[in-house]
Specification:
single chain; 20 helices; elongated
Length: about 550
């Protein structure tokens, strides 16, 4: 016979069972809510069950790669046979910046075209594809509802991505799982991706921010506290414009000259103007500071002269990135000077003024060293003679030192201008890469190559080589003219044949040492001079 349990004990067991059941229900609800919140609104996968979007937003699309039907039209443009749309203005950007833009919170951002209507972000695990469904009649083309059209779009993206990879990793080789994002902001893992971010100047970006932080919490300190490297969240970004196929024409037959003119007309010339403007301003500053520094160092004691000369010359031997890092530390928020400038509303870092400062730092030693060498090569007795006549140091510098040393100073000045035009590491580190503001020709070459625009990069390389050749040729021509003027070659060249024969004939008169060396000194009658000295000696003896 079973013993009946006491009634209070049975009630206690029932309460425990109810409590456990309620707890299980709460846990299931919480897990469902967390999953719904963390799941991205992306649904371009190989199976229909992977879709996390609401019913009707997307469908299971075929993303197979059919490269044979892709017609590569030109740089950044392609279309697919039998599909009513194509891709133009395709661009691959592999580098971004973590500096907060004007009107944008902190985070990692990669620039895209202002009129781009699709973007592909290569994340560590997959590729996020965002397409603006309201642009260029994409709803009518059935891009997100027709498997054939989705496959054509993905095939064009893979083909253009491979063309712009510059032998780097591609979407085709790594075969990432593509996900079509139906919203402009999605969360994938620890990162939040935004495809339509825009700053105060209208520039568009794809941004990567920590998913754990809200929009108002996106500050540099809060981002550092998360321990995330936001640059790891986006390995590169492809972007472009989906346009109707009727707007894409095949490559028209043009002459070589027309193709060259069309290519040059399509290039953004702002890096040239930024380089010229930066180089000219930096040269003016370096020229004045270099001459003053050389003049003052020449007149200092030997011990102090060695210290000053080392300080003024060290930017020439330091790596440019080290100079940029030191400038960044000096004018950034980590120093008292940088904080004082920021508090007074003066921004230096990542501005055009920063590009000028970087160019001055690397070009100043060239002006200084050439000027100092020219000053030290002058005859000190001639300068002392001018002092005995009561000339001031400034007058001596202006009318004797500077004119005599000018050929060397001019050559150093031209070299300093070329150095300022060609500066890369210090400018990129301290001023950044902002088109039309701090993007000089060397920086444009690097980023055009990284973006897959090899033709544009080669164009700027040719421009830099031609400019450097002209600089060296100008220096050599100027030096040759100065040397010819000093030796009297131009004057002899202008005289006729009879004069040249007369100059070539041996002179019956004895020449002094200076004339024998080819100088333009006044000829001295040595016999008359000897008689004069003899008479003076006789008078002296007689007087004694």
């Amino acid at each position: 016979m079973r013993c009946a349990r006491p009634y209070p004990q049975m009630m206690l067991l029932r309460v425990r069972a109810y409590a456990l059941a309620l707890l299980a229900v709460l846990v299931c609800c919480a897990a469902s809510a967390c999953f719904a919140t963390a799941a991205p609104a992306c649904a371009w996968g190989d199976e229909a069950g992977e879709s996390a979007a609401a019913p009707g937003e997307v469908a299971a699309l075929d993303t197979s790669y059919v490269p044979d039907n892709v017609e590569f039209l030109s740089e950044g443009a392609a279309r697919f046979e039998g599909v009513p749309f194509g891709i133009s203005a395709f661009e691959r950007i592999a580098k971004g910046t973590q500096r907060a833009g004007e009107g944008m919170p902190a985070g990692y951002r990669i620039p895209i075209q202002a009129d781009a209507n699709f973007a592909v972000v290569r994340t560590p695990e997959q590729a996020l594809v965002y397409v603006d469904q309201g642009a260029a009649g994409l709803k009518d083309s059935g891009l997100t509802s027709t498997p054939e059209h989705a496959s054509a779009f993905w095939s064009m993206v893979l083909t253009l991505d491979e063309a712009g990879s510059m032998s780097g990793p591609t979407l085709t080789e790594e075969a990432p799982k593509p996900l079509l994002c139906t919203r402009s902001t999605v969360v994938v893992g620890p990162y939040r991706y935004r495809f339509d971010a825009e700053d105060a100047d209208g520039n568009r970006y794809v941004t990567v921010t920590p998913a754990a932080l809200a929009e108002h919490e996106l500050t540099p300190d809060m981002i550092r506290a998360t321990g995330l490297d936001l640059g790891d969240g986006a390995r590169w970004v492809d972007s472009g414009i989906v346009v109707p196929a009727t707007g894409l024409a095949g490559p028209a037959s043009q002459s070589a000259l027309d193709q060259a003119l069309s290519f040059v007309a399509s290039i953004d010339m702002r890096p040239l103007w930024v380089s010229l403007k930066t180089g000219v301003v930096a040269l003016a500053i370096s020229f004045v500071l270099g001459l003053l520094a050389a003049w003052r160092v020449m007149g200092t004691s030997s011990r102090l002269k060695g210290v000053l000369d080392s300080v003024f010359t060290i930017p020439m031997v330091l790596p440019p990135t080290v100079c940029g890092f030191l400038l960044l530390m000096l004018f950034g928020n980590s120093t008292a000077m940088g904080r004082w400038l920021v508090e007074h509303g003066i921004e230096v870092v990542f501005t055009w003024q920063a590009a000028v400062i970087a160019a001055v730092v690397v070009s100043f030693p060239l002006v200084y060293r050439t000027a100092l060498g020219a000053f030290e090569g002058l005859d000190a007795s001639m300068l002392d003679a001018a002092r005995t006549l009561g000339w001031s140091e400034w007058r001596i510098f202006r009318f004797i030192t500077l004119p005599l040393a000018w050929p060397s100073i001019a050559a150093g000045t031209v070299l300093a201008f070329a150095r300022a035009m060609g500066e890369f590491g210090c400018t990129l580190f301290f001023a950044g890469n902002y088109a039309g503001i701090t993007q000089t020709i060397p920086i444009a070459i690097y980023f055009e190559w990284m973006g897959g625009n090899t033709d544009v990069a080669l164009f700027w390389v040719v421009v830099v080589i031609a400019f450097s050749f002209l600089v060296v040729l100008g220096i050599n021509s100027y030096t040759a003219r100065q040397q010819a003027y000093r030796t009297g070659a131009p004057a002899r060249a202008r005289r006729g044949g009879a004069a040249r024969k007369r100059d070539a004939a041996p002179s019956a008169r004895p020449l002094d040492e200076i004339d024998a060396m080819g100088g333009d000194a006044v000829r001295i009658d040595q016999r008359a001079l000897a008689e004069l000295l003899a008479e003076s000696g006789a008078d002296g003896n007689g007087g004694a």
